[in-house]
Amino acid sequence: MKALLIIAHGSRRQASNDEVRDLTARIKASIGSDIGYVDCAFLELAEPSIPDGIESCIQQGASEVVIVPYFLSAGRHVIEDIPAEIAPKIEQYPEVKMTVTSHLGAMEGIPQLLTSLAATAY
Amino acid sequence: MKALLIIAHGSRRQASNDEVRDLTARIKASIGSDIGYVDCAFLELAEPSIPDGIESCIQQGASEVVIVPYFLSAGRHVIEDIPAEIAPKIEQYPEVKMTVTSHLGAMEGIPQLLTSLAATAY
Question: Looking at this predicted complex, what is its ipTM?
Fold first, then answer.
């Protein structure tokens, strides 16, 4: 089973963390049969942590975890901190495939999303 | 003519600002005839400022400026700071229609974007 784990930075402002949780719930509501589980995790300042998020995916039966950095830019968090949080879990579960996608800001669909938004703004 | 102005936070890390500029360039390359101009502006730490970005749109001939907050959560920057930067320009150019869209994290297309990414990850 393939799981999707959204990784956000985390904020002292609870409403920001809840926005990520709401987004996760919306994704859960829209997934097809190709994804069996969706959850979110936070680099800091909010729970669950990244290792705990990966653990949840595996406990739910994931044989593959697709990890999406929900970040706008490829700063230190994306390049160093997130991989460092994931590494021990890769070692702990060598039989589970873990893939880290590009961060949100670099995803191919973003320009199209923003363009379509402008085109339909009234 | 309708212009699209992407508003990012701005960073001390120039590569992050350049990611926004690259995104803007990619959007420019993909717009149809319904949008005549695309630019980006920064709330702080980078140039151009939001008022200068709006001014560029108007100088390019925009009768309508669609302003997209390139932010993940609806924090103080989105709710207070960006509107406060825009307000003087609305007053200065009452004949120009200025629309602020939802911030990136709340856009309807985001769940679909992340889901499709997970589905195609290999």
Answer: 0.85
